[in-house]
């Protein structure tokens, strides 16, 4: 069974996820640790739990989701996986950090790419990859059907949706992604988002004002 631990990192209050199972193999999703103390918090947890990190997964490559990606790659000797359409987003992170006066970002490169229909495996567990563009051109989410949860990045939040006022965003595509990829799931699927607390598909189907 997959265990999910989340950390809130950086001034952007971004949710970083560590998923692991009984084999102690783990994946890190969207490491937003910017400060050295945040990187140590993440590393200390992995050490204390005796985890073996096997992959770094990115739902998308906006700066707050990749602050700690170079650190994770170097620390654990793993590959960074994302969708190929996120390459221009990732390439722009360093310049955006400079523009916004955010110090400490270490540039990082993707090693491999994921797309709709792929599976990510670790230990005795697997996650299905779905393509959910809109907030970012190559945004993906990771779904565990046996345990009914989604690691959804910045697609769907409790009572809200991802922003679409950034370059390469598409509001119509975002709404379509939610309706065709998330809202086809059962109401009891838990959604772990890139910011804020978890929600459920059923709650958002009923109450999300952006999806009426």
TrEMBL record:
Which cofactors are named for this entry? Zn(2+)
> Where, by residue number, does the polypeptide cross the bilayer?
none
Q: Which SMART domains match?
A: Lactamase_B
Q: Which residues form the Metallo-beta-lactamase domain?
A: 13-195
**Which GO terms of the molecular function aspect are on file?**
hydrolase activity; metal ion binding
What UniProt keywords are attached to this protein's entry?
A: Hydrolase, Metal-binding, Zinc
Task: Write down the Pfam families for this protein, in alphabetical order.
Answer: Lactamase_B
This chain belongs to which protein, by name? Glyoxylase-like metal-dependent hydrolase (Beta-lactamase superfamily II)
Which species is listed as the source?
Answer: Runella defluvii
């Amino acid at each position: 069974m997959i265990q999910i631990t989340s950390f809130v990192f950086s001034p952007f209050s971004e949710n970083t996820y560590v998923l692991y199972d009984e084999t102690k193999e783990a994946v890190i999703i969207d490491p937003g640790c910017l400060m050295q103390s945040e990187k140590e918090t993440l590393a200390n947890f992995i050490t204390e739990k005796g985890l073996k990190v096997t992959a770094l997964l990115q739902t998308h490559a906006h700066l707050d989701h990749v602050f700690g990606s170079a650190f994770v790659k170097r620390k654990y000797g793993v590959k960074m996986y994302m969708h190929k359409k996120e390459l221009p987003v990732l390439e722009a992170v360093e310049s955006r950090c400079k523009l916004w006066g955010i110090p400490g970002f270490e540039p990082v490169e993707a090693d491999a790419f994921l797309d709709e229909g792929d599976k990510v495996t670790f230990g005795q567990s697997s996650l299905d990859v779905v393509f959910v563009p809109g907030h970012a051109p190559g945004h993906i989410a990771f779904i565990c059907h046996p345990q009914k949860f989604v690691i959804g990045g910045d697609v769907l939040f409790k009572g809200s949706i991802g922003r679409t006022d950034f370059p390469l965003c598409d509001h119509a595509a975002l709404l379509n992604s939610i309706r065709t990829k998330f809202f086809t799931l059962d109401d009891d699927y838990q959604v772990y988002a890139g910011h804020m607390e978890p929600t459920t598909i059923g709650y958002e189907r009923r109450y999300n004002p952006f999806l009426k």
